[in-house]
């Protein structure tokens, strides 16, 4: 086994094709974050840190490990902080101990927060496992709506009634565009999302130039495995809710949803997700992955759950010890708070207070 480290933009056409083939044969859901196009896109905006380890046997590529390298050899998953699915892409029977992989990449640690289920190579580093709710529409939207009606009839009835009221009282015809190519609604969405981050006391992701640049770039990306998809709910010509995510042929990975707070009483975000599910089913998409994290709207819409993992793989040594001191105490504190609903409620109220101060 030989490991060669390159920048994402240095991958050859042959290597990109092999990467796609390995993912297609893996049996894992076709999550667009695991496709080479996402790693290459991150490399455009994180050129100083983004790398790919190409695993070769007898001169042929048999695996790929995308990552970002920081100071002291501290590594993270590619696109850490915004990537919703992470890990290595390996051919059948390809095995390399994780410590050997880290040494080949000159990493003292590799951190992940959305490690794909089934990534056994990194199993020793898993600290926590989280549910990632999904909407399954492989049997068609009608079957999904019937399932919603059976498990939560009041939710579906109320949401559809609000959609009708939005049409009567919103000041124009309600219409939905699944794949909007106009960039103006994307800028509106990013503005809504930034305001939401500030309002809830969280870090504004779009204040980071590389993230906003990445989203704009992916909006124009078109490939079978990873295409940016902007879905917009309009009243007349005005957007009232929007979502930007990535799709493959069979998976829509939900990423950045937001809505205009002026229309909050109509629940436009829920209406948007129902129309997204309907359009996705028509497109042949079988799964909408809502992403890790608890939210009431996800509980209302989901039909099931997948799993993602958080943790870190380390090489024993001084640099790994420094990493542990810088990250693990905070991780354990977050875990402690999340596991206690009362403390979690206090923490959320504190974040909301920070948001009000910012406002």
TrEMBL record:
<protein>
    <submittedName>
        <fullName>GNAT family N-acetyltransferase</fullName>
    </submittedName>
</protein>
<dbReference type="InterPro" id="IPR038740">
    <property type="entry name" value="BioF2-like_GNAT_dom"/>
</dbReference>
<dbReference type="InterPro" id="IPR016181">
    <property type="entry name" value="Acyl_CoA_acyltransferase"/>
</dbReference>
<feature type="domain" description="BioF2-like acetyltransferase">
    <location>
        <begin position="157"/>
        <end position="298"/>
    </location>
</feature>
<dbReference type="Pfam" id="PF13480">
    <property type="entry name" value="Acetyltransf_6"/>
</dbReference>
């Amino acid at each position: 086994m030989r490991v060669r480290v390159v920048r994402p933009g240095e991958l050859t056409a042959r290597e990109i094709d092999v990467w796609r083939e390995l993912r297609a044969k893996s049996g894992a859901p076709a999550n667009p974050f695991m496709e080479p196009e996402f790693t290459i896109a991150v490399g455009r905006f994180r050129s100083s840190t983004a790398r790919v380890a190409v695993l070769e046997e007898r001169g042929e590529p048999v695996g790929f490990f995308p990552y970002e390298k920081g100071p002291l050899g501290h590594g993270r998953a590619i696109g850490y902080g915004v990537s919703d699915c992470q890990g290595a892409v390996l051919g059948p029977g390809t095995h390399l101990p994780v410590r050997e992989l880290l040494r080949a990449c000159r990493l003292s640690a590799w951190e992940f927060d959305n490690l794909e289920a089934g990534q056994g190579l990194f199993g020793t580093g898993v600290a926590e496992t989280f549910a990632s709710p999904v909407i399954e529409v492989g049997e068609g939207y009608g079957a999904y709506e019937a399932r919603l009606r059976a498990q939560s009839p009041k939710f579906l009835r109320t949401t559809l009634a609000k959609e009708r009221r939005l049409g009567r009282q919103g000041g124009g015809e309600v219409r939905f565009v699944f794949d909007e190519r106009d960039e103006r609604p994307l800028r509106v969405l990013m503005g809504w999302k930034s305001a939401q981050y500030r309002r809830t006391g969280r870090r504004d992701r779009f204040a980071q130039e590389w993230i906003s640049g990445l989203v704009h770039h992916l909006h124009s990306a078109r490939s079978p495995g990873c295409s940016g998809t902007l879905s917009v709910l309009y009243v007349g010509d005005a957007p009232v809710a929007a979502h930007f995510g990535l799709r493959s042929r069979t998976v829509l990975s939900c990423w950045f949803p937001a809505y205009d707070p002026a229309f909050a009483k109509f629940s436009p975000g829920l209406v948007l997700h129902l129309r997204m599910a309907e359009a996705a089913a028509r497109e042949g998409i079988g799964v909408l992955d809502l992403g890790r994290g608890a939210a009431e709207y996800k509980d209302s819409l989901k039909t099931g759950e997948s799993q993602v993992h958080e943790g870190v793989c380390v090489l024993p040594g001084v640099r790994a010890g420094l990493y542990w001191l810088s990250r693990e105490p905070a991780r354990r504190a977050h875990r402690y708070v999340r596991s206690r609903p009362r403390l979690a409620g206090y923490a959320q109220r504190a974040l909301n207070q920070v948001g009000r101060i910012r406002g």
